[in-house]
Amino acid sequence: MSHLLPATFAFFTPAHGASPNAQSIDTLYKVTLYIALVIFVAVEGALGYALVKFRKRKGAVAAQIHGNTRLEISWTAAAAVILLVLAILTFAKLSSIQNPPNSGPGGAVLGEQNNLIYASTSRKLPPNGKALNITVVGRQYIWQFVYPGATEPDELGAPYSYEEMVVPTKTTVTLNIVSADVVHSWWIPALGGKFQAVPGYHNYTWFKIEKPGVFHGQCANMCGRGHARMIATVRAIPPAQFDAWLAERKRLIEEANADAKVERATLDSQTGPGRVGNP
Ligand SMILES: [Cu+2]
Known about the structure:
It contains four helices and ten strands, in the order H-H-H-E-E-E-E-E-E-E-E-E-E-H. The protein has helices spanning 4-12, 20-53, 69-98, 239-269, and strands at 132-139, 142-146, 160-162, 164-168, 172-179, 184-186, 195-197, 203-208, 213-218, 231-237. A hairpin with an 8-residue loop joins strand 6 and strand 7 (195-197). It binds copper (II) ion.
């Protein structure tokens, strides 16, 4: 029985935060839930009590009550106090949800290319301005992740992956969320709130994962018939392993590009029915 209660609460509360922003959302949600639970039980309890205690009896005459000033003032004041407490708590937690912290000791060493500064009021950077920035591209029906390391403008030549985002632990990761077609919604519950991927717009969020782990999510905005298949996974690994993974990723993409170049040259050199070329 003792383990049933936490399990029930876990069902009703957000995924336990694996990132400071998700942790703050989780705390706020639970505080509100517990206050609401106490009020719910008190109100329903009083209602149940009144139903039983004052049910219809032969010869009973209902008491005629014309207000109770003290009671009315106290429940108005109590509601106001609860509202005030929730507002203060929310504003106290808000900055830890919106503003990314610096990468922790032992985090990935971030090069200059991760230090992109461009005009935006909604893009939050850690106090020292250093974060690993990953572009999240929503497209029907797969998530694409573009990592730093572009060799040409517009992120061309950068290493990328589909469906699974790999990130270093202890490192502040900022996300630049965009869409290639329709509106999608980026959501990994354990790593913070939902962010829409809207064509023509950039939305920003961040997370920071302390320990290696795998976090699952799913496109949270109905985007077409393949929506249900549009899953996303974030895999956090130690920074050294991440560097190796990224280098391998880059090597595989370069290899594939080189192969494609050879294929193209072969096709271009062919004549006749086998030739597939651009006019
Ligand atoms: Cu989608």
